[in-house]
Amino acid sequence: MKCDKCNTELPQEAHFCFNCGFPVGTVKVFRSCTECGNALSAVDKFCSKCGVPVKVIKEGDEGSFDNDAKPRVQLGKNPKMILIPGGQFVMGAGTMNSLITLVGFYMSEVPVTQLQYSYVMGKNPSKLQGENRPVECVNWCEAIIYCNMLSRLNGLTPCYSIGTTTDLSGFEATSPVWKRIVCNFVANGYRLPTEAEWEFAARDGRGSSPTPYAGSTNINDVAWYGENSGIRTHDVATKEPNGLNLYDMCGNVAEWCWDYYAPTLASGAQTNPHGPSSGEMHVKRGGSWLDDPQQCTVFHRSGSVPSGKSSNLGFRVVCSAGSEM
Asked: Which residues of 211-237 are buried (b: 16+ CB within 10 A; e: fewer)?
């Protein structure tokens, strides 16, 4: 048995992880307090944080927690794209902020769902399964392959190529050939957002006084995260959207971006930046179902190797604003 949060190997009789203290085994967290968002186990009768009485979930009924909330939007096999008008904003929350200018683009209103991914790829790699949940356990390379395959399926020009090849499905994620990948940002196909596009969209496109979470100062309104998720993903669009009608920009699953990861953002004015020209990791943004509030802010940055995958990491797609959506 492994801890869901830190992946530490544990004896089968364990109830809590001796490394991080997270509940495991028969004391799984299945619910959250409707008053304060605190994580609750299946046997809690009162919230340990605010004292509000909660309904006891009987053994065998744990799965009902997933069905409490339904998606607020119509979900299909193709991502629904939302127009993000271009503009300027100051990126980041530190002292080395950059003035960024972006042209308009389209972004999917929710992370790519398991139904959408399996429709294109013919498989569902997710550990926490549910067709309307975000797809996870997808590495950066597989997200790129999905984008090109979805583009071809819809008669659009693929954005990604290695040499003259746009069919990237035959390349292993650990192959050095991925260092040669290029993105045609004027093509009308699907691609991953740049880190600047992701943050701009998460912040409602506004350049001043953004909320710490995508659409709210209260994380429980907009995100499934470590204290309210029940140690799992949830159907997309079951929390409030941000001001651009984008759901799950914070929490549920972290999201891959195109850019190579660097510990600090580049300073100075930039137009449509695409990140560093090389690197060992790619950016992931937004935080997830097992992260703390700080990791779910619109400013938090982290990276992972392109072959990395986990049950708290997915992606969403964007398209050029010149495309007909």
From this structure: bbbbbbeebbebbbbbbbbbbbbbbbb
